[in-house]
Design goal:
There is one protein chain. This protein has 584 residues and is of the alpha/beta class. It is 59% helix and 9% strand.
Length: 584
């Protein structure tokens, strides 16, 4: 009797595994990328270099005081030498930290791109929630660049804002409590104004980046279908939509810039008022018009100059932070965009980029389905307790009505979809999380619309795979009925999407791709002869049977002529009945 298998939790990760979240700017160091840890070390070094200004200001004030006391050139040589040595130390430290920070920022952006690219590569092609190619390209190529100013400008300014002003305030406090009070009282007003502006800045930056990605996706998709738009007279309408999207992006960009200018203006206002108040106080104090605020003693010229030199430096980190506030908003929006690429609840391909090396001689793999149940959420079951065994090297045609589940069954065998219940075995090995990468390396998937890249025929066959040599690609083309003997030579240039190829030639090019590596012993094809005339379909069938010798072949098709030539025919809607007959 038929065997009922409970849902197997070990199969679900084939479709439900999600990528780790993108590292956030704030949080513990545990688990952070090495590039981000190196960047934080450079940020701390830059903050320490900024504090060197305190002894430099003290030496400069001391030299002026000596001159005021009637000293000569010899009396200022010592503080001048110390000032120059500290300046050289500060410059060299900032240069070292800047180089280290730039390398770390580049490394972090590269890591973020690699993680997003890996997550996209692991997403199943059957996942309808995958981001459009234009949006993904915009996020990886353009929005990821916003991480550089976020790390190179905003984060150093943030570290200096946390470390430098408190130390400078203590240095000013040692000379005058009133001057320190003025600085400390003005300091909270600046981040308060920046925070109020920053909320709007982050939302505006996220909106602007979203509009940029949407426009890029729209443009890329329309460029791909330009011939269709031209044939149907929709070029002008598309141009108007693109113009409207560009105008919307311009308005969003100008809104971001207006907010950035507003944050800088608020900082300059409060810092200028505070420095002016300190200067007025020191001036009147030195003139004897005001004697309070200096710990019961009168400030000397050197002490007053020391306070005046530190007052602008107190606001310098805050000024840098305000100037980089837009970089913070853009960086946060970029992090969110990259995190969206990394996340997703759709089907995943575990180990998709960890396939073992290509083998030279394939050995056919058997396929066995045991108690398979397939049911989409809210829909009737596609398969119910189905068993199917395909021997090693056997050629099988899956036939059935449209929507019966032929493509779904192929996707299940390839590990692109999870089964509601049951088990899949490839070559005697169960398809699960640990074995998915190795088993998928044994498969060749050819869908209904094989994608052709812009480049030569040779490049489209090899696809840059290290195990595919030029002679392998040429041999595969010959076996597929293409190559130098046909009008499609290996060096011929092809346009994006297959411009220059007929439908049958595109399918045979896909067959040559699968055969060139020599590692795939299980071929899964979805409607290879769909939309082809009888003569072209026969040529494709001849090439398929010639290339699939010695391999296990499973073809989903409506073409009964192709099914008859393949050999064994399995009706998808009779799998359940077949299982029950075998059990009886």
């Amino acid at each position: 009797m038929a065997r009922h298998t409970a849902p197997d939790s070990s199969v679900s990760p084939l479709a439900l595994q999600t990528a780790e979240p993108c590292p956030q700017p704030a949080g513990a160091d545990h688990g952070q990328p090495p590039a981000l840890s190196a960047a934080r070390g450079a940020h701390a070094a830059l903050a320490l270099c900024a504090l060197i200004w305190i002894p430099q200001a003290a030496l400069l004030a001391w030299a002026v005081q000596r001159l005021a006391d009637g000293g000569g050139l010899a009396d200022v040589l010592q503080p001048a030498l110390g000032y120059l040595l500290l300046g050289a130390l500060r410059a060299s430290g900032e240069a070292w930290a800047g180089r280290r920070l730039f390398a770390a920022a580049r490394g972090y952006a590269s890591e973020a791109r690699a993680q997003a690219w890996t997550a996209l590569a692991r997403r199943s092609p059957l996942d309808g929630a995958r981001p459009s190619s234009g949006q993904a390209a915009s996020a990886i190529a353009e929005q990821a660049e916003a991480l550089l100013p976020w790390l190179l400008r905003y984060q150093p300014a943030r570290w200096r804002t946390l470390a430098v002003p408190p130390v400078l305030a203590l240095a000013v406090l040692s000379q005058s409590w009133l001057a320190a009070l003025i600085l400390v009282a003005a300091a909270p007003l600046i981040p308060l104004a920046m925070a109020l502006v920053g909320w709007q800045a982050q939302a505006a930056s996220a909106s602007q980046l979203q509009a940029l990605g949407g426009m890029n996706g729209f443009l890329l998709d329309r460029l791909r279908g330009l011939s269709t738009l031209r044939a149907l007279g929709a070029v002008d309408a598309t141009a108007r939509r693109l113009r409207g999207a560009a105008e919307d992006l311009r308005q969003r960009t100008m809104r971001v810039l207006r907010i950035a200018f507003l944050s800088s203006a608020s900082l300059e206002l409060f810092s200028a008022l505070a420095v002016a108040l300190v200067a007025v106080y020191v001036g009147f104090h030195l003139l004897g018009q005001f004697s309070g605020g200096s710990w019961g003693r009168r400030l000397s010229l050197g002490q007053g100059l020391f306070v005046l030199l530190l007052a602008p430096a107190f606001f310098e980190p805050l000024r840098d932070l305000a100037a980089a506030w837009h970089d913070r908003a853009a960086g946060q929006a970029a992090l969110e965009a990259m995190a969206q690429l990394r996340s997703g609840a759709g089907p995943q391909l575990p180990g998709a980029l960890d396939a073992p090396p290509l083998r030279c001689a394939p050995q056919a793999a058997s396929v066995e389905l045991r108690g398979i149940c397939l049911q989409r959420e809210g829909e009737a079951p596609v398969l119910q307790d189905a068993d199917l065994h395909i021997g090693a090297g056997e050629h099988v045609a899956l036939v059935g009505a449209s929507g019966a589940g032929k493509t779904t069954l192929l996707s299940l065998i390839a590990g692109l979809l999870p089964a509601s219940a049951g088990e899949v075995y490839i070559g005697g090995t169960r398809l699960e999380e640990a074995s998915a990468a190795a088993l998928r390396a044994r498969m060749a998937w050819i869908g209904q619309k094989p994608h052709v890249f812009s480049g030569t025929v040779q490049d489209n066959v090899s696809l840059g795979r290290p195990g595919v040599l030029r002679r392998h690609a040429a041999a595969a083309l010959r076996q597929a009925g293409l190559g130098a003997a046909s009008r499609i030579a290996p060096g011929n240039a092809l346009g994006e999407g297959g411009t220059g190829l007929s439908g049958g030639e595109a399918v045979r090019l896909a067959l040559a791709r699968a055969a060139a590596a020599g590692s795939a012993d299980l071929w899964l094809l979805d409607e290879p002869t769909a939309h082809l005339d009888s003569a072209t379909a026969q040529a494709v069938t001849d090439a398929l049977l010639r290339l699939a010798r010695g391999r296990t072949l499973i073809v989903a098709t409506h073409d009964l002529t192709l099914a008859a030539r393949i050999g064994r025919v399995v009706h998808i809607d009779q799998l359940d009945a077949t299982a029950h007959r075998r059990a009886a």
